[in-house]
């Protein structure tokens, strides 16, 4: 019989994956009984998983001690972006100062895997689970040599919170622009130890995500308003 810790980890992984993918919609109620039926876990590992997801910002505990998937809003995305700019740019700068040959090799390998997946796609990039995992691995490789473990951990958490928005914005655009060239230039500047250039590229990369999300939210609001007018 699996222990509680491993079951809680499994529950956390599956819930988190479905929240990032949007299968568990933003703002939706997370009733323990429903989650038990959906995932097959008992209440204890589910509550532990939900508590961890609260710490990551993907779940909110409401006043009645229940849980909801964290809502999506332009304000929340702006806050995520602000914190990423504070943490990630400094983490990249530190990684460039401290990085070794092994760090450089890991970045090249992560980029290669991401590029190969995008190269197999005939159309625009699909922000699915495979691409998301490789995209995350590339960005985490860039800051892996940062000397602060806490900073790396917080950056990873914020990246994951932004991932939910990336997936959301991709569903409200006709095409998701490939970012292979952006990633390649960012990698090259990082490997060449061009701190200022690499930081500027990463800043624009992060802000680009925010702009895409804001456009998607405006489009979704426009669609909602149109539907409301049709039913008046």
UniProtKB/TrEMBL annotation:
Residue ranges of every copy of the HTH gntR-type domain listed in the record: 5-72
Keyword Transcription regulation in record: yes
Keywords: DNA-binding, Transcription, Transcription regulation
Xref: InterPro entries: GntR_C, TF_FadR/GntR_C, Tscrpt_reg_HTH_GntR, WH-like_DNA-bd_sf, WH_DNA-bd_sf
Keyword Transcription: yes
Alphabetized SUPFAM superfamilies for the sequence: GntR ligand-binding domain-like (SSF48008), Winged helix' DNA-binding domain (SSF46785)
MF annotations from Gene Ontology: DNA binding; DNA-binding transcription factor activity
Pfam families: FCD, GntR
Domain of life assignment: Bacteria
Protein name (database record): FCD domain-containing protein
């Amino acid at each position: 019989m699996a222990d509680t810790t491993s079951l809680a980890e499994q529950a956390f992984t599956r819930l988190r994956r479905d929240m990032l993918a949007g299968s568990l919609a933003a703002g939706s109620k997370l009733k323990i009984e429903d989650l038990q039926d959906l995932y097959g876990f008992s209440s204890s590992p589910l509550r532990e998983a939900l508590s961890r997801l609260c710490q990551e910002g993907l779940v909110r505990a409401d006043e009645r001690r229940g849980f909801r998937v964290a809502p999506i809003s332009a304000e929340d995305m702006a806050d995520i972006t602000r914190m990423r700019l504070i943490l990630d740019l400094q983490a990249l700068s530190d990684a460039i100062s401290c990085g070794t040959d092994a760090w450089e090799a890991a970045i090249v390998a992560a980029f290669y895997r991401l590029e190969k997946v995008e190269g197999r796609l005939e159309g625009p990039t699909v922000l699915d689970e495979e691409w998301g995992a490789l995209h995350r691995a590339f960005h985490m490789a860039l800051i892996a040599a940062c000397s602060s473990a806490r900073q790396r951990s917080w950056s990873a958490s914020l990246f994951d919170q932004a991932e939910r928005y990336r997936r959301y914005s991709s569903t409200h655009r006709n095409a998701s622009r490939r970012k292979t060239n952006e990633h390649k230039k960012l990698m090259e500047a990082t490997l060449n130890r061009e701190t200022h250039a690499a930081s500027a590229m990463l800043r624009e990369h992060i802000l680009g995500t925010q702009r895409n999300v804001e456009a998607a939210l405006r489009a979704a609001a426009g669609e909602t308003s149109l539907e409301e007018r049709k039913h008046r």
